Amino acid sequence: MNIKSCEKNEKNVAEIVIEVNKEELESAIVKAYNKSRNSISVPGFRKGKAPRKIIEKMYGDSIFHSDALDILLPSVLKIVAEESELRIVGFPQATDVDFKEGNDGVDITITASVYPEVALGEYKGLSAVKPVADVSDSEIDSEIEGMRLRNARIEKAERPAVNGDIAVIDFEGFIDDEAFDGGKGENYELELGSNTFIPGFEEKIQGMAAGEERDLDLVFPDNYAEELAGKAVVFKVKLHEVKEKILPELDDEFAKDVSEFDTLDEYKADIKENFMKSRQTDADIAFENALMDKLIESLDADIPDAMVEEQMEISMNGFANQISSYGMDPSTYLQMMNVTPEVFRENMRTSSEKQVKIMLALEKVAELEGIEVSDEDIENEYKEGAERYEMEIDKLKDSVSEETLIRDIKIRRAAQVVTDNATAKESTEADDTKAEKPVAKPRKTAAKKPAAKQEPDDSKAEADADEKPEESAAEKPAEAEEPKPKKTTTRKPKSDKPAEDAKE
């Protein structure tokens, strides 16, 4: 078995012809005959007893060719991988088979996508806008106010309900004087102003006192469930009790209760410091992303479709893991979004193409810079990954190949070369309106933890069930938002758990 010819066509698709000699083909046909002879009927012979030559004479010489080809293919593909000197992308396919007369051998044509040759322009001295990391006093105040709300006492209020109160109500909805399924609730604790129920419901409860009953004339939103959308409804509501939130005093005692600090000023300073760290990280990611956009402008590579398809598959798996981590079924989520998996996957094509271009460009930078990875680098990377993902180092080595680890380290270091030699431009108002804000913390591209089934947080689920009764038809429909692929970044985090995908 040997390579007879190898030609590379456009879009970096190669055709490799493997020549299989007579002896190798004969061996495969014998195996195919032994595998299938018990299922072939030949008059005058019991099943499994008919000689091969009799079967071939009766059904034709090609009767065992298909099974013989299946037997030969693993060896053929091994020859392609080891002796063609091509860097194969995706899965090679047999596209043509030519059996020689008298089973004197066979030529098998394998079509495979290969890594493209890459040319890259200047990668040092690039410039891009880097957002200014800043935190306003109002943001700090908002954070503290949220903490006060979370630590508020709930007390019974002897007054009419106002915005922010918790109203304990019974309600039942009627359309054309007929009650409908899902439109009833008892002793429901509704926080006024939370926008939990359909528009107008919470506003019309404000001003009600304990023991009061009221009819609420409302209209279901047009984007509601089909059987109720746009319909006029009357909700009969009885208010049992009004509860108010008593916020803690904003002083040093409050800071001691909710933090490790002794004074409110120290607590505010810590909030600002944490915000600044996060904003700085976001700014760094945005800057790196903008530089990657500039970098691939000078990329010259004939990228095979298989590379993009492979990245799209990685992105789909990342999406599925992301949704599953929230306790949702990905297919159910897509149904809620009214989009098919095929359409959703196709929508990832543009971002996948960009990710492939960035990877190729950074690999070229690593090559031009002569970036090397030592055995010590690899071992340290595995150790860090094992600690980060809380798994045994041997198991991590089993799930992440050394080759993958080396490539990812080189890509990360190449990105650092580009960033270290770039110029950050001052942000202008026009730039700010165009710049995309980073939507994810920087993530490590290497040594990802293998996807694992996530056990639900039972304590949280039970708490949620205690706090909120079964959803009713009065409740406002949740506006599901499609998870967006995270920004491409090669930055290495300090402690984040992996989002179990190849997501970017």
Account of the 3D structure:
By secondary structure, the protein is α+β, with helices and mostly antiparallel strands. It folds into 3 domains: about 1-115, Alpha-Beta Plaits; about 125-135 and about 275-465, Trigger factor, domain 2; about 155-245, Roll (Chitinase A, domain 3), CATH 3.10.50. Helices cover about 40% and strands about 20% of the residues. The protein is built from 16 helices and 11 strands. Strands 6, 7, 8, 9 and 10 form a 5-stranded antiparallel sheet that branches. A 4-stranded antiparallel sheet has the order 1-2-4-3, with helices on both faces. The chain has a two-stranded parallel sheet with strand order 5-11. Strand 3 (about 90-100) and strand 4 form a beta hairpin. Helix 8 packs across helix 11 (about 350-370) and helix 11 packs across helix 14. The protein is extended and about 100 Å long. The protein starts with a strand and ends in a 37-residue tail after the last helix.
Structural class: alpha+beta
Our measurement of the CA-to-CA distance between the termini, rounded to an integer number of angstroms, reads: 40 Å
Mean pLDDT, rounded to whole units? 85
The helicity comes to 40-55%
Q: Rg to the nearest angstrom? A: 33 Å
Q: What is the H/E string?
A: EEHHHEEEHEEEHEEHHHHHHHHHEHH
* Domain count: 3
Question: CATH fold name of the largest domain, please?
Answer: Trigger factor, domain 2
Per the principal axes of the C-alpha atoms, what is the gross shape? extended
For the record, what is the CATH homologous superfamily label of the largest domain?
A: Trigger factor, C-terminal domain
Proportion of residues in extended strands:
15-25%
CATH class of the largest domain: Mainly Alpha
